[in-house]
Amino acid sequence: MTVLDTHVTPAQLGSFSIGELSLRTGVSQRSLRYYEAQGLLEPMRTPLGHRRFDAADVVRVRLVQRLFGAGLSSGEIAPLLPALLGEAGADGGAVEELRAHRRRLGEEIDRLRDTAEILDEVIEGCDAPE
Prior knowledge:
It is a single chain. The chain is mainly alpha-helical. The chain is built from six helices and two strands, in the order H-H-E-E-H-H-H-H. Strands 1-2 form a two-stranded antiparallel sheet. A hairpin with a 5-residue loop joins strand 1 and strand 2.
């Protein structure tokens, strides 16, 4: 933080840098910048343009991480976040979208099980004595 960047507005009270957000969430600064570019994270900015984050951003980043872990892409996550975080005016279809994603995963799991069974049969056929 520079001398010119020391003025703190009420919105910045309790705020912290991208490095601190990285430490609090275990997510790299590079990934946090990517989240911002994808519309998943909207930091406050100081008059000099430095990013500032608060406790709500920690919750947001952790949710984004969980949704990535569940196989969703940033494009799928972005429209869901406001509703999942209880933000005013958010679309109420987020949970149904997650249910649809879960159904697709179940279908993919079933398909993979069928594929594994076919491979098991082929392997057994190869292992059989002649």
